[in-house]
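W.,

You were right to be curious about this one. When I first looked at the sequence I had no strong expectations either way, so I just let the prediction run and decided to look at it fresh. Below is the sequence, 392 residues in total, followed by the output.
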Amino acid sequence: MAARRFPDRFVWGTATAAHQVEGGNWNNDWWAWEHDPESPCREPSGDACDHWHRYPEDIALLAGLGFNAYRFSLEWSRIEPEEGEFSQAALDHYRRMCATCREHGLEPIVTYHHFTTPRWAVARGGWADPATADRFARFAARTTRSLGDLVGRACTLNEPNIVATMGYLYALFPPGVRDPDLRRRVNDVLIDAHRKAVDAIHSGPGTAPVGLTLAMSDYQAVAGGEAARDAYRRDMEDVFLEAARGDDFLGVQCYSRTRFGPDGMLGPEDGVALTQMGYEFWPEALEATLRRAAVVTRGVPLLVTENGIGTEDDAERIAYVSRALRGVLACLADGLDVRGYVYWSLLDNFEWIFGYGPKFGLVAVDRATQARTPKPSAAWLGAIARANALPD
């Protein structure tokens, strides 16, 4: 067992995002997008998991399972519903969430932007407008003044590469644009927003480590696919990994691998099982991305801020996470500075364009009654967190 133990003070958590669980977040670009009949969204978010009201019981449930951290996000459009107008009620709400985590022995890992942007900011150009970086930094500074002393770790932007790529290259996320050059400019605005938000959050109060979280994939090339892989990975990952050099940590978020041939991206390999999201069941991708992140960031401390699987088969979830954690242990054995593992997600929730179909949660949510039912995987992973070790 000694060889399968994790370091002391290892972070064990699960995660949610405001729009995916709170419900009623109508004042952002995603609510508009999911109600647009021309968008690819399968259904609207509606009441989601009513986490806005039910967070005390959800946090208590998480702590009772054995975890020591909870990663959640702030809804910018609630805190700043119009430009320059800040809601003290919303700020107090998120302060209470942080305090509730502390009362239950959980570290609050707070994400300042998780995909959703206020409608007023979108009307002014959204992430295609360089001024949005300053708007976001102002939001980060004002929010930190209200709750920074309670924040354990701060994530500036969740997967900015997904915001840019899905919104401005593939038109799957708002604003639904297909423009490779604009996507690269949006990358630059998001990187600028991150850097300015780091300074804003560090201005305090509080001394929380600050970093961004990045969607990473184990990009693999079959014969002749190396150039296509490297070109795609440059705009998707490398510019953000390089921007994270010198940060307090990097959040690595990984679910699967992506293969490339001479003509570009390939589909799943024949014979490899697929998840509800349509990508390959490939838990070994986490180890590969942690190793690459360590190299490209030049040793920035790493935190797995998302990893998990969408499946109706909870035994499959346990198998996936077990293999992923073996990869984390292998990284630790080789000296990589990995500080923790946060499973996505706590609850079965609104999975963006896929709606409520994919089941990532450790806890099932009845769509009619909002009743929570922990799955066997919740107790299994909670026991690992308590023991700080992976059993045979």
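Here's what jumped out at me. The CA atoms of residues 167 and 173 lie 4 Å apart. And, maybe more interesting for your project: The first strand starts at residue 11 and ends at 15.

Coffee later to discuss?

I.
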